[in-house]
Structures are given as structure tokens and as C-alpha cells.
Amino acid sequence: MKIQLRCVFAYRTVDPADLWSELFEIVDSLGRSSSRYSFYGRTRKPEGIVSTLQSSDRSSFDVSDDRFDFNFCPIAKHRLDQLIVTTTEEDLVDPYLWIKNLAATEILIQAFLFNDEYDFWQNATDPLQFRSHGRECDHLPMCSNGLPPPLEQTVIDVSKNPGKLSLRNGYIEGVSNPIWLGERFWDRVRKQRDQVLDSDVWRQVRELDNGLVCLHSHRKPFDASDDEQTRIQNQVRNLLYEVTN
């Protein structure tokens, strides 16, 4: 099963070369590193990627091998930096180790652990994506993409999906199991930390270093929109965010 670890950092606080070095150290410590990686269409050694990032004005990177895909980029419009790590459960090994290392060196706002396929289909809006994968979408709610003619198109309305992701100013409105929240998260969503953590929606609350907290609301990463998982995802979303469509 493909897993996605998505980390949100304070805007322009992450140095791409330092982040790549940290990521390589993590995979190397897990015995999952490679001697060469794909880097913008070229095969490079890990240290060569560091040198390129240090000597260039790149603010983002896309690095992959046969086990991992690492995508990092700042999103200026929403004032956040985003890292997406896609791999398998077996190769991720321990998501808590990843978060511990990344939160120690970067200003982590929040982090999510997703079932990659579930996340994709919960947020897919193009009917062609469904048809190209042999999936029916005629029964799904539709809406305008909000663009003026001739760019306007009818797309799938994901606004009511329990697993939808929405980019906000300085954070991402989304839910996952588990979910990690940093100290700066609370001011961004205008929520009281203690009140949120006291909710009975959580199966487990783990206080970590640097004001970080890890919250569990289900026994596994969300992978379906059945009654139970939909109810939990909606409860978590309403608890964490001022929900808007």
C-alpha cells in the first residue's frame, strides 16, 4: 500500500539543501537509501543533489528512486512550505521517526499520514481522471471550476468529501490518522489547544518535543468513506478548523 507523509512548514523557513540532507539521513538510517536518485530527469548522487541545491536559486525539489518520491515546494499564495513523501508502509518503516527528525530542524505547522490512493480519489476533480482509470463518475456531484469563459469547466465537487484537502493561509485544512500539530498551528486556526486535545474524538494523544502533539482518531490511516470513517473524519475536521467550503 502506498503511503503519503505530508508536512507543512512555516513559509520560507526551509532551506531545500538542508531538507534534502535530512531526508537522506533518515532513509540511510533506515537502510533504505540509494546510491543514485532521479533529480529533474537526471541521475545524481545524493551529495550531488545537495551541491546543486546549495549553488542554485532553487526553492523546491523533486527527487525519487524506486522506493521514495520526495517533493518539496513553497506555496507563496498560501504562505506555507510543503513536503510530500510518497512510499510504501514497509519502506516508511516508522512515521514517528520521520516527524521527530523533521520537526527538530524545521518549523513544522502540521503533518499528515495518508493512504495515497484514498487521498488521491478524495481530491480528484477532473472527470477524465476517473474515466481513464475505468471509474464511473456520472453519479458524483458536479460544479463549475469557477473560472471565467472560455476556461470554465464542469468538475467533480469534492467539497463534501470527508478526505478533502483545502489550502488555507499558512496551513492545510485536512484530516488524517494520525495527525501531527505544531505550536504555530493553533494561532493559524484560532483554536484553543487544550480544548481540542480534551475532545473524546481522540483514541490517543501523544505529547512530543517542541510543543508538537500527535493525535490518533482511528486504528489505521483513513482508507474509505464508509459510515464510521466519514463520521470520524468530519468530527476531526469540525474540531480542528473553522470549516468552509
Structure description:
The chain is an alpha+beta fold. The protein is built from 9 helices and 14 strands. The protein has a 10-stranded antiparallel sheet with strand order 3-2-4-5-6-1-7-12-14-13. It has a two-stranded antiparallel ribbon with strand order 8-9. Strands 10-11 form a two-stranded antiparallel ribbon. Helix 1 (16-29) runs antiparallel to helix 2 and helix 1 packs antiparallel against helix 4 (95-105). The protein is globular. It starts with a strand and ends in a 5-residue tail after the last helix. The relative contact order is 0.15.
Gist?
The chain is α+β, with helices and mostly antiparallel strands and 245 residues long. The protein has nine helices and 14 strands. Strands 3-2-4-5-6-1-7-12-14-13 form a ten-stranded antiparallel sheet. A two-stranded antiparallel sheet has the order 8-9. The protein has a two-stranded antiparallel sheet with strand order 10-11.
First and last CA, distance? 30 Å
Strand content: 25-35%
- As a percent range, the share of helical residues equals 25-40%
- Tally of separate helices: 9
Structural class estimated from helices and strands: alpha+beta
Total beta strands = 14
| Strand arrangement, major sheet | 3-2-4-5-6-1-7-12-14-13
| Spans of at least 5 consecutive residues with low confidence | none
Mean pLDDT: 95
| SSE arrangement, N to C | EHEEHEEEHHEHHEEEEEHHEEH
Which overall shape is indicated by the principal axes computed on the Cα atoms?
A: globular
**Main sheet summary:** 10 strands, antiparallel
